[in-house]
Model the fold of this input.
Amino acid sequence: MIESDRELSAMVQELWDNDVNRLKPGKDYRISLQGKAGDSLAINNDDNNDGAGFPLFTFVDENIFKKETFLAFISLLDNYESDTGEPEIVTPEEVAENHKFLDSIIQTPTMKIAHKYLVEKHLSPADETQFKEQLYRIWFELYARRGSSRPDSSGFEHVFVGETRGGRTVIGFHNWIQLYLQEKLGHIDYKGYSVDAKSPQPDENKHILALQFSWKNGIKPKGSIFIGVSPEFEFALYTLCFLTSPNESVKVQFSFYDVEIVCHHYNQKHIGTTYPVLIKYRMDH
Done:
């Protein structure tokens, strides 16, 4: 097991402590874990694999979505063509929305902390405009995902929006806001939580969850997401891991969590995918 990165853990703890827009479980939102998801990946209508007859989210205080960073984030979610292989057409309006989102998160305490640290490590430019250009390249520049000859994907689309491959498999899709909004629209069928012999039992009052769900006509056999955190926290955390950790996976400890952050690079320039894997809860916190 990789040693947890002390320095990075301290940084992530600082991001966590300064995530002022994070929702409180049980107060700002409630989830219903229900049963454990089955192992078979068949999507059929008899649903013997479905460990959950009800939606994952029972309540979300949508006033929170009026906050500037949430508003800017949500405006980006409908800008993508989910099927890999379908080239993305980026309109000038969408480019402007991407910049507006970066403008809004760059002003938050979490992103300011991440930026300061990255500058100290000579991994990011001190100039805010140049830092934004770096973020744009990492997250929003298009590239061709495996099996495609045309630019059909970006780090942002994969991680925060989700994609489908061959119409049957959901790839990426590691964001709770997109999950909630798509579930509300009836596009998501939550199949239950995922646990294996090594992973801890999930907890409705904790902020990390492994789960199975179908989206549109595809299945996500096992996804892992933060729940209730702000867009800027995830953006800051993943950017930090991408730029500081060349080996695609880093172990951090913060708050109640021992977590592995998986972060795959695409050509060393863009984020391929990134998500949290809960290793265990920390009792001493």
Helices lie at 6-17, 68-74, 92-106, 109-120, 128-139, 155-161, 176-184, 231-244. The longest strand covers residues 270-281. The CA atoms of residues 85 and 148 lie 5 Å apart.
